[in-house]
Amino acid sequence: MRPGSMGREMPGYRVVLIDQATGEAGDEGEICFDLSADTVGLLTGYHGEPRRTAESREGGCFHTGDLGSRDADGYLTYVGRDDDVFKASDYRISPFAVESVLLESPAVAEAAVVPSPDETRLAVPKAYVVLAEGYHPNAVAARVIFEHSKERLATYQRIRRLEFAPLPKTISGKIRRVELREREEQLHGSKPAPSATGASGAGVGGTEYRIEDFPELR
Q: Which CATH number fits domain 86-217: 3.30.300.30, 3.40.50.2000, 3.60.40.10, 3.40.50.300?
């Protein structure tokens, strides 16, 4: 076992990480299975969708849509879904990695991280948070979470905006980040006016807090 890792590939599978920009195999990229290795246990295709089936097997690999990395010992670490990973100040940010750290805070029961449009950085990490029992959606809880983010995350990964709100989910319980991303586009497509409470704006959950609201934490 290696903390944070999914482990190494099982017998019967040959995992390759494909750089989506170059199409070359490396130590980071989309998690794919080499179809020339007689891989076991893969679906044969998508019923009634030949185009999607062909795309999933392009280049002799089965494409999962998941991103990952592999260390020198062959251990694989999950980064996130291809359509969830985003750039902020030209850094690639995995919502999964940031959420995993936020969930270690005693104040956080659930969290979803999405890009929020920003004039300077193009996008900044924003967390939608469901608070743990005993915490209330106010500036005190926001400060606790911002402090935790500052202590545990790299500078480029730190959340810059925060909103307390229920998380939209699929029937199977997966968080619908695409819905939250759309909300951010609608909310911050143009610069929002400051709210009367001193926080920076209002979104689906009410008040949005920003790191700028806590100058001592910047």
A: 3.30.300.30
